[in-house]
Amino acid sequence: MAEKLKEKENRPGWIASINPWVLKIKNNPERVAFVLHRITGLLMALIIMAHIYVTGTPARVGWDAWAEEIAKAHGITAVTLYFFFFAGIAWYHGLNGIRLLLVEFFGVCIGKPEKPKPPYLAPSLKACQRKLLYLVFILWAILWAATGYILFAS
Q1: Measured between alpha carbons, how far is 117 from 106 in angstroms, rounded to an integer?
Q2: Taking 80 as the threshold, does the pLDDT of residue 43 lie above it?
Q3: Residue 116 to residues 60, 79, 108: CA-CA distances in angstroms?
Q4: How large is the average pLDDT for residues 125-135?
Q5: Distance CA 49, CA 39 (A)
Q6: Please, which of 4, 82, 89, 142 could form a disulfide with 40 given CB 3.0 to 4.6 Å?
Q7: Poorest-pLDDT segment among 24-38, 85-99, 116-130, 132-146
């Protein structure tokens, strides 16, 4: 029974969904992007739930408490949290989502099929898709920096 649960080296299964470094492929930013996309999606869901809770404050405790919450939201601590958590997460998740739509829905950068050979790296991950991924990382850094400038300069 224990042999069935043991995962093969080149087919790591469900463990690779949790830990991108399980795959024994050097220079694998696609797996890191995959895990980051899942984590940012979960964090965005949590941020939306917190936002719904805060916007429901007037219904629970009245408008005075709402005014206090809004005053807290304009402090430097809250703006810094918005920058690090919401702006960074939203920009990355959105840009990577656009890349995934282009690749998986529209077939951009899929490449020609090849006969599989170890280490079973898809040909699409060798050139065009990797450039798209690097473009996502570069645009994310630029847009996140621009958001920081807008938040902290004003």
Answers
A1: 26
A2: yes
A3: 60, 50, 21
A4: 83
A5: 16
A6: 89
A7: 116-130
72-107 per-position pLDDT tens digit: 777 778 778 888 888 899 999 999 999 999 988 888
- Taking the C-alpha atoms of residue 94 and residue 9, their distance in angstroms, rounded to an integer, is 32
For the chain, which residues make up each domain, given as ranges?
A: 27-153
Q: If you write DSSP's letter for every residue of the chain in order, what string do you get?
A: -HHHHSPBTTB-TTHHHH-GGGS--SS-HHHHHHHHHHHHHHHHHHHHHHHHHHHTHHHHH-HHHHHHHHHHHTSHHHHHHIIIIIIHHHHHHHHHHHHHIIIIIS-TT--------TT---GGGTTHHHHHHHHHHHHHHHHHHHHHHHHHH-
